[in-house]
Amino acid sequence: MFSIDQSRFALALCFIPMIVACSETTSAPPSHAQARPSTSYMGEAPPFAEATVFAPGIVSKTGRYEYALSLHPDGHRLLFSAEAPENGAAVFQSRLGDGVWSTPTRVELSGGAHKSEMEAFFSLDGSRVFFAPYTKGMDVRIWSAEVTAAGFANPQPLGPPVADDPSFYPVQAADGSLIYTNLAQRTIFRATLDNGVVSGAGPAGLAKGGHAYPSPDGRFMLVDSASLESHEQRDIFVAFRRDDGAWGPIHPLGPEVNSEHSETCPSLSPDGAFLFFSRYDEAGGISNIYWISAEVIEDAAPV
Questions:
Q1: pLDDT tens digits, one per residue of 66-102
Q2: Residues near 228 by Cβ (< 8 Å), separated by ≥ 6?
Q3: CA atoms of 156 and 188, how far apart (whole Å)
Q4: Nearest CA among 224, 238, 228 for reference residue 280
Q5: Which of 243, 236, 240 is nearest to 258 (CA)?
Q6: Which of 51, 77, 161, 247 has the CB geometry, 3.0–4.6 Å to 72, for a possible disulfide?
Q7: DSSP code string of 20-76
């Protein structure tokens, strides 16, 4: 989120999603059975029909915003963004070693080039991380860095046309493309990435949304947007791909996900089995990360 906490949330209220497709050489996404990480999800018992707070007191802490959770494809690393109301955003990492998850610690993905960083997502093959650093105001640009055994290396901003506009929430889609939110255009863009060169950026074709996240198989796109009941509240929606390849209309997820509070920043586990999202249910309108079985997404599919 943006604090920039209040400003980021206020902006999210009026964002229209946009997708950027980045085609880079990656292996095809594994099937659900192949992709299921051999991890305990930080020791948490997986939820099914009811959304629960993810890793309370470890990831989801009282008094700070948490959002944009990403699991490495091998299931041994976890990234999420967090910020206290008076501070800028930061990315935290936890790693699985000898069957034990480490206490989340802050990582500096941009190598100190920017004061704040947020919304870090692993690439499909886990070799890179895409993230959104900034120093002040709304000048947020998308960067990437290599994922190494020791941590992260060689951070670089993405070039134009992605770099032409303030942008964030960069997620790689099943076809290798990069999905992100163009803040200047207030919509979701899609751009192509070939050997580090970005091209072909443009609207992704979604009706609306603030943050978008594609399914591992490319069949649907999750977005957050204004609630059907109130523009002051955010809910999570899903758009399914039509036979002609275009995105269909967005459908709200059910009451298991969308509550009387705002819900934003959807993401999925690498196998597509679990949905993660932020719910602003803490005192003062602060968000915690929740998770639930992704079967709730199928329940929203048009019949």
A1: 999 999 999 999 999 999 877 889 999 999 998 899 9
A2: 235, 252
A3: 22
A4: 224
A5: 236
A6: 77
A7: -------PPPPPHHHH--SS-STTPPPPSSS-EESSBTTTB-TTSEEEEEEE-TTSS
Cis peptide upstream of residue 29 (ω within 30 degrees of 0): no
To the nearest whole percent, how much of the chain has pLDDT over 70? 86
Question: Taking Cα atoms as reference points, which of 253, 258, 254, 187 lies closest to residue 220?
Answer: 253
pTM beyond 0.90: the answer is: no
Provide the H-helix boundaries in the chain: 4-12, 32-35, 295-298
Q: Are 67 and 278 in contact (CB under 8 A)?
A: yes
Residue pointed to by tokens 């870090």 = 120
- The Cα–Cα gap between 139 and 81 comes to 18
Q: How high is the pLDDT of residue 139?
A: 85
CA distance 13 to 1: 12
Q: Which amino acid is at 199?
A: S
Give the largest Cα separation in the chain, rounded.
50
Give which of 121, 106, 170, 112 is closest to 141, Cα–Cα: 170
Tokens matching residue 142: 């998308």
What mean pLDDT is predicted for residues 225-247? 89
Task: Read off the amino acid at residue 130.
Answer: F
For the record, the structure tokens of 286 come out as 């602060």
Query: How many angstroms separate the Cα of 285 from the Cα of each of 6, 63, 85, 151, 259?
Result: 10, 10, 11, 33, 13
HEC secondary structure over 181-218: EECCCCEEEEEEEECCEEEEEEECCCCCCCCEEECCCC
